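We emphasize that the prediction below concerns an isolated chain of 299 residues; any contacts that depend on oligomerization or on bound cofactors are therefore not represented. The input was used exactly as deposited, without trimming of termini.
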Amino acid sequence: MTDYSARPLTLRTHLADRPNTHGVVTGEITSPLVRLDICGPASVSKGFKPLVRDNAFDASELSVMTFIQARSRGKPLVLLPATVLGRFQHVFLAVRAHSDIVHPSQLEGRRVAIRSYTVTTVTWARAIIQSQYGADSDAITWVAHEDGHLAEWRDPPNVERIDLEGRSLEDLLVDGMVDAAILAKPTNHPALRTLFVDPAQAAEDWLDRFGAIQLNHMFVVNTELSSQRPDVVRAIYGMLKQAAAAAPKQELGVNALPFGVEANRRNLEVALDNAYRQQLIDGPMQVEELFDATTLELN
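Result of the prediction step, given as a token string:
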């Protein structure tokens, strides 16, 4: 257990090196109050499970839907309104190049390969299918090769587990084992295409309808750290904000890396609504429930 009274404080921190986090990861941006010991798996998403199951880090980026689930179940994590990865997800829905599937409704009754049912990209993909296009995502068989980040999670009946045996989700799709896949990055495989002929237009339609970007990763800290050392939490937030300001990112003309509670309010409202609609959480939640007295003031 970290002694949060130490001065200066050293925190086990999990954070990917991106243009908008580079200054923090490399130590170019510092604070006299805290040293961030950047550690954890090279693949940032591999750190999410040990974070929510074993409190492996004092501070970390975390996928938004995993955090919402963790917070709803009383895990000792609190959100900073600091977006480290924001984007629209339409481009990650893939089908075979000659597939007859041209609309999300045609996925009903089909098999769709995913990493895990509760990961954020997959949850947003279901939101696109369900909330944006009105298709029944429960009528889809989701073929997953990993369990959820939270140990308490149990997949719904329409999830089938598969062993990839060294294959990728693209391989499953190319080989005809599934009808579509939710990928981690846009496909450039010659035998595949995106579900949407114009993913950017589909994303713009989402933005027009819901007024929100699809948040992927934000930043969290241990609840004891936030309650005992609000000065350190504010310093971390300032460091992240300074790094992001050096590498601004826009999608469809909007800020894809918003900072502050009010700047993220609508984004989080839509995320919470879809988490509840998809039964990732047991009941509706309000934006304020994701924060504490310290982090709610970070605007």
